[in-house]
Amino acid sequence: MQTVLSKSLSELIKERHSIRKYDSTYKISQEEIKDILKEATQAPSSSNLQPWRFIVIQDQETKKELRTIANNQEQVETASAVIAVLGDKEMYKSVEKVYRGAHEAGYMDEANMTRLIESTNKTYPFAPEEARKNIAAFDAGLISMQIMLIAKDRGYDTVPMGGFNKAQFMEKFAVVDRYFPIVLISLGKAAAPAFKTARLPLEDVLIDYR
């Protein structure tokens, strides 16, 4: 397992860049990828329903097929792995497991557990599907950033990709209708530095300060 580097969060944020050239000979173990994902699931989510799911692709032939689905982006095939982040538009179906788990861990009493389960079941199932998809997509963004920062902390590189054929992805990986693909994240060792990028001045993005 890769040794975790000791860097501050500020350093990691500044050093993380989108890498598109990877060392295709470098392999990351399944165990470490699972460890990265497990750590990333500490991300916050709406009502703690954790509406994210993952498909990890490491098989070389499968990555080659995925490359055609992902607009021929080279990094899909050359990175050690591709993590597909999916959203769960029926996230409320996890409510019992989420809140009973919190109760059993001693984080809430039974009354609060029951109240939260009932409240979730009265709202989420009746919300428009588009609203639930928006919630899942927002939460998937939070965990995707966690994945990329955790990977950087372990000495790996990443790039998020939203440009791929979602319908073809669902067909290829037999994704059931409850879930929908949001982003692909290439994970591996850089073979070339990232392109330098600039950021807008804070004055351009800070609309108001009161």
From TrEMBL:
Annotated GO MF terms: oxidoreductase activity
Nitroreductase domain: residues covered: 13-189
Keyword set includes Oxidoreductase: yes
Keyword Oxidoreductase part of the UniProt annotation: yes
Family of the protein in this entry: Belongs to the nitroreductase family.
Protein's name in the database: Nitroreductase family protein
EC main group: oxidoreductase
EC nos: 1.7.1.-
Keyword terms, alphabetized: Oxidoreductase
